[in-house]
Amino acid sequence: MKQGQATATQRLDYQAPAFWIDSVELTFDLDPAKTRVLNKMRLRRNPDVAPQPLRLDGEELNLARVLVGGAGTSFKIEGDQLVLENLPEGNEPFELEIFTTCAPNKNTQLSGLYVSGDTFFTQCEAQGFRRITYFLDRPDVMASYQVLLRADKAQYPVLLSNGNLVESGDLPDGRHFARWQDPHKKPSYLFALVAGKLVAREQQITSRAGHKHLLQVWVRPGDLGKTEHAMNSLMAAIAWDETRFGLSLDLERFMIVATSDFNMGAMENKGLNIFNTKYVLATEATATDADFANIESVVGHEYFHNWTGDRVTCRDWFQLSLKEGLTVFRDQEFSQDMAGSPSARAVKRIEDVRVLRTAQFPEDAGPMAHPVRPDSYVEINNFYTVTIYEKGAEVVRMQHNLVGRDGFANGMKLYFERHDGHAVTCDDFVQAIADANPASPLAQHLGAFKRWYSQAGTPRVHAQGQYDAAAQTYTLTLTQSCPATPGQPDKQPFVIPVALGLLGQDGRALALQLEGEDAAAGHERTLVLHEARQTYTFTHVAEAPVPSLLRGFSAPVILECDYSDAELLTLLAHDGDAFNRWEAGQRLALRIALAAIASDAPVAQAAVLPPAFVAAMRDVLRHPQLDAAFKELVLTLPSETYLAEQLQTVDPQRVHEVREALRAQLARELHADWAWAWEQHHASGAYRPDAASSGRRALAGLALAMLCLDARTSGDTLWPGKTYQRFKTAANMTDRLAALGALVGAGHALAQPALERFHQLFKDDALVIDKWFALQAGRVDRGGDVLPSVKALMKHPDFNLKNPNRARSLVFSYCSANPGAFHRSDAAGYVFWADQVLALDAFNPQVAARLARALDRWSRLAEPWRSAAREAIARIAAKADLSNDVREVVTRALA
Ligand code: 0A1
Ligand code: ZN
């Protein structure tokens, strides 16, 4: 493990490589204990760079031999680099051969070549290829790859790598081989190989362009029955990219392989995507609606990378959002298009924004805040963040909205015309979108718009409206500011598209006419705020309007507007923009919760929610036209994390207590309505994971949770009994897990037998057992009872910290997703956290560093939590042999 050499890499230090690698021939003799790798490269000097030695990256490799042009040569090892000084001069290509060995079965970091079960997998992004062979392991070096795999035939019957299978056959001693050739040049991080006992679901397809392709989803033999949804998702993604962007599959064969040991969700290796099983395997009996939706989205995401990432890649890792922000935007659009109806699209948008606000906004306000295009990093693996991914997607979405759907498609076309086959920058992307749309507000404000890439922090937009009855005008003043972030004390104004409408007091949409315009133009428009303060005057406004601002969450900002409760109730009841309708309900709930948190009044059993709010929630729940999925979102209170983000000083126990009191009140006062919602929405027919039926299941599940919660205080036995029955007879995992969650969440006596039964039923299905752990670690805390059960579960025979999915299901679910249970006043949650970070760091620094982020926001905590948190972080930081990954996170946290 590399330790202690924590030097930062700076974006502005970028230099083109001194050598290019035109082609690579890799030969692998696969053996878990000692794999031999022969790497034969054709290199040439980069004529644009002053002559210098060749420095190849390599980590944890045993070097056996180096040949230049077939003859031995001198070399040096300097740290993690192999340095060659005596290379041919001039610009002619030359051949370099390097023999190394590595030990895949000792690779617990799951980066480079590793073994999972009895199967070999690779993970090379960002810098895993250097753990396989010495190389110019940087994304701007794009080479042609030919790969020869050799292994024991009985143990490793399937041998896969990128591109096309050109040859395969038997070798002496029970071994066999396969030769693969990738027709496209690629950076090393997109290299992959897989070898083991796997089986494939196959599908032949013909593209719109008339080309035939073979699609394969490779899994362990017992899992073949769980691959239909992944294959359907892949076919849908291929068709979508052709229709929406005119981008076709550029390979004869496209493969997905699933592994149960994976640090992340999935990886877009060219033609050979490697996936966490969680994002491949699903049947209605074992996977929830959310799992089905995630599979569709992740399969889409990795497939879309084939163009945005693989064909056009990143010049350096600071440009990571070039591929990630764009590809998340593409997968979000894909999921919306698959969801279909406008309402289902809005539901997806709300879910995406919820992720942004509960995970990215805190990141952008904490010690790890960084721009979408960072300026420096110590460990690049720490920068696969919600900022790079989700905020990056919002920045692409704003460009899309500023140039329009067709304008964006034209911009993408120009981007590929200019950059196909190259490694480029975020600037190159924005430039292409703007150049294709010279008259757009994006092109007009291009320089200022790019600040979204360079400045960290969440901008705040303050809106102030003034109605003049005599003049029939409505004046809207928008001001913006952005808080300081590490290394960036002062911010320049952002370009902020503010989509808006105006509602009359009765909720009607008013026609919009700005001062100086001849006539009204529709009921919705987008103002482009680009200065610190701008004023807009609407004319012919016959009554004081209610502004509906930032529709569809048109920019990743915090909007402050002094709405009255009545105005928010109007928006909740009438806004034509579904996002803002939901947002109005969230604002009301937030306001009530924050007031209760600030007061010292006891909240348990108290009526904190005013009758008007409860009535509005009832109206939404009973609304004849609204979709169930939308209702479920409106009826869900803002999370504890989101509430905490609104506070200067956070008492996490008070936040937890208040939110629980509000939930209990909604459960109590809407009891009859929840019962009605359950009766109306629960179903027992055939399972389909489409948006409409999963929405009904989501609402029925919430109803059941609320009915069980209410039974806690009312002593009702009917609903818990019904829930247990539902748990036993449920025909799909969504309904079964919802029923189990309702019992566990309410702390009902039936929860224990249900948990035992669930384990018994699914003990052989790792992904379901992950859910079983996660449910227990994430349940509502009552008097500090979650931590003891987490500790007991750590000793369960099924628990294994080395498996990232299992570690996430228990340790992360507790530390990162259950604030009420984690932030204990006796500091035991933090002690546990620090122990687990250190334990994980000894074998998997990437996963450890993610867990280390759980206390990012420690400095906002009230005492005694604040001091206890700092002490726990300091204890980690004091460990001498920390990985660079964890060291960077805790150093920033304490800075
Ligand atoms: N590029 C992948 C995510 C990924 C990143 C890093 C990994 O290992 C360190 C693995 C996967 C994606 O965006 O899906
Ligand atoms: Zn990605």
UniProtKB/TrEMBL annotation:
Catalytic activity, EC: 3.4.11.2
InterPro entries from the UniProt entry: Aminopeptidase_N-like_N, Aminopeptidase_N-like_N_sf, PepN_Ig-like_sf, Peptidase_M1, Peptidase_M1_dom, Peptidase_M1_pepN, Peptidase_M1_pepN_C, Peptidase_M1_pepN_C_sf
Assigned keywords, A-Z: Aminopeptidase, Hydrolase, Metal-binding, Metalloprotease, Protease, Zinc
Domain Peptidase M1 alanyl aminopeptidase Ig-like fold: 457-561
Reaction catalysis annotation: Release of an N-terminal amino acid, Xaa-|-Yaa- from a peptide, amide or arylamide. Xaa is preferably Ala, but may be most amino acids including Pro (slow action). When a terminal hydrophobic residue is followed by a prolyl residue, the two may be released as an intact Xaa-Pro dipeptide
Domain spans labelled Peptidase M1 alanyl aminopeptidase C-terminal: 565-895
Residue span, Peptidase M1 membrane alanine aminopeptidase domain: 230-437
Swiss-Prot/TrEMBL cofactor(s): Zn(2+)
Domain Aminopeptidase N-like N-terminal: 89-190
Molecular function per GO: aminopeptidase activity
PANTHER family assigned to the protein according to its UniProt record, in alphabetical order: PUROMYCIN-SENSITIVE AMINOPEPTIDASE
Family: Belongs to the peptidase M1 family.
Name this protein carries in UniProt: Aminopeptidase N
Protein species of origin: Comamonas faecalis
Gene expressing this chain: pepN
